[in-house]
Amino acid sequence: MTNQAWLKRRQEVVARGINSAFPVFIEKAEGCWLTDVQGDRYLDFIAGIGVQSLGHGRPEIVDAVRGAADQLIHTSFHTAMYPMYVKVAEQLASLAPGAMAKRVMFVNSGAEAIENAIKIARQYTNKPGIVSFSNGFHGRTFGALTATDKSHPYKVGFGPFLPDIYRLPSAYCYRCPVNQERAQCHIECLDLVQSQLLEEIGVERIAALIIEGVQGEGGFIPMPAEFLQGLRRFSEQHGILLIADEIQAGLGRTGRMWSIDHAGIVPDLLVSAKALGGGLPLSAVVGRADILDAIIPGSVGSTYGGNPVALAAASVVLDLMVKENIPQKAEQLGHLMTAKARQWQARYPQIGDVRSLGAMVALEFVDSITANPDKNTCQAIIQAAFDRKLLLTKAGLADNVIRLLPPLTISEIDALEAMDRLEAAITEILAPQPVHA
Hints:
Elements: H1 3-13, E1 26-30, E2 33-36, E3 41-44, H2 47-50, H3 59-71, H4 83-95, E4 102-107, H5 110-125, E5 129-133, H6 142-147, E6 165-168, H7 188-201, E7 206-212, E8 214-215, E9 221-222, H8 225-237, E10 241-245, E11 269-272, E12 283-288, H9 289-292, H10 308-323, H11 326-347, E13 351-357, E14 360-365, H12 375-387, E15 390-391, E16 393-395, E17 401-404, H13 412-430
Parallel strand pairs: 3-15, 5-6, 5-7, 7-10, 10-11
Antiparallel strand pairs: 1-2, 2-3, 4-12, 8-9, 11-12, 13-14, 14-17, 16-17
Helix pairs in contact: 3-10, 4-10, 11-13, 12-13
């Protein structure tokens, strides 16, 4: 069947609220390549929204999944335990920041892990308040969605949202919340956050701060190390937990195992998902032993959380992250992509900002005169890249950012091919050839 035939069937049965970026149906995948039902091949610079960090169809992961399915598909760890849960918890605890004793719990998605981190923070501190940050994205369930900044399409029509979740400015340096130039910046936005917590909200009611080391859906915005370090100091001074959302930026993507490693800080709770399951639904909350040991047994959990098949995949993922030094590969890949993107930025004023941390690389498109966000140009380039069989995805509150999110194991040849296709798309949209009579 063709893509069009499947689209017709989709329209007759799939809920309209489920969005799909491209009119193609994928039949198989390998490495960084996707093949649709018509046999067309696409370079994948989305990687399942950061899930397939080790590439599609990785043989070691496929073998682990098959072997696990042969032995045990499901019992629920709450009713009949199995060794793989403990093994992967040990692996993840050993990789998480900090030398202190840690505890781990598994659930199914990033949003579900965020929900549990919020509940844990509230129960442990006996305080209601949660602080998130502008441009942050934490998921689509109600607690996670309340903490998320972007309204359309994620929040529109779903309110009212949960109480006692507050949003404060983040350190978005390209669009500084306190109008500082980068050369003169002394992290005044940190002072603003601290003053609002002290004077407007009240630190005595805050259970936790939750922040991404690199804001993913917000537009691949790296938080300055000084900003994160200041938040860590402030939270410790006032008995507030720090939750690191490493769902998209974690597990090697930024050139370190965790994005907050660049700031050298240790959070109280860390949330991991996406790449963790190697393509299967799996997420985790990792935290200080004293915090997680204080939680009432049975007050957190999930029927499917820590499914044995997903855990088998995760065990291989974590092994390969270390064995193949995936963070180093991400760092090298990031240098390649960023160098190309900065060349384009020098040619086209519509590329207002190029920013990166490791292999999280973003191009922000703006009006060349006003510097206002330009989502139309961004979408036109994504479409032009799709016409060249390159899949890209957008980000940012204004949908004006292209984020480069390939598998971290992509070869240099394939990475350069993808960047060449993107350059051709940018050239087509930003520097169209004149039409001759």
